[in-house]
Fold this sequence. Notes:
Layout: E1 2-3, H1 10-30, E2 37-42, E3 48-53, H2 56-69, E4 74-75, E5 79-83, E6 86-97, E7 100-116, H3 120-157, H4 165-174, H5 176-191, H6 194-212, E8 214-219, H7 227-231, E9 236-248, E10 253-255, H8 265-297
Antiparallel strand pairs: 1-9, 2-3, 4-6, 5-6, 6-7, 7-8, 7-9, 9-10
Amino acid sequence: MRLPLKDSDYFVTKVNETVKTIDDEFFDFLKPKLQMKKVDVMLGDGTITTAETFDPIEITNEFRRILQSLKDWTFMDISESKTEDLYRLYFQITCNVDKFYIYGYFGIQFHVLNYYKLDKEVIKIQRELIKLNQDVSDSFISLADKGNALIEEELRRQGLDNLSFEELFSKLYGNSNLMDSLEQKVLKLEKGFPIVQDSENKREQLISELTDMIIKLYHIMPVKIDYNKLMQGEEGVVSYFEIEIIKNKKTGKREPYLDTKKFNKDITEIVTSKLSEIVLSLKELRTNTNKKVDQDLK
């Protein structure tokens, strides 16, 4: 069952309170690292504009600090996923306590936007591409005109110039020698237009250089979101927990349904105490961060 649970008994009330505290502490811990910073960038048309970004590497470092501070919790390394321009950076923790299996998810969801570096070289490369594309286009038109003339002349020589399209198609389809002859003549003609291939190679080089000038900016709304908003693709900071009953410790079989009304105060204390370890770790990390900031200011 995903927390917070929907009920009002003692177990649900205490566990929900603890999970909310974790959510608040996690957000407060990350928020200073999610402040957007302004940077000057260039758009595809050469326009200079100001955009905002944060540093995901800083968030990754903060996630590692959290993981290193947690004792008796199992976790895998920090993960990321993306769907088009929507990214997630997150980590997951699990723990078996008494007869419960607890799973926790902590992460951020944000967008990645592409811009060009603020560099005159971007405009220079774009202008070269425009001129190159025009040259190639002109060459293709000239090549096409000469190719059509060559084919018409060959068809005239073969006495096929007055046939309908269907008749001509049938003749060509059944005459492989004629097809090969036309193909060889066209290939020979193309060799007289080396600019086409040379320009294509140059175009690929310029596009590669332009790609190297792209920078990624990371955009997030520094707000809390829940599981549903995470699934809907909203930006923000999210944490949520799931809890299940361990039915068989040997096989690892679990039961997602919890009859919380049957859980006494002792069981509630076992679960909330384990969750509270995360609260204490986050508070301590935030306190240490604030101390370091104060020392740096001095």
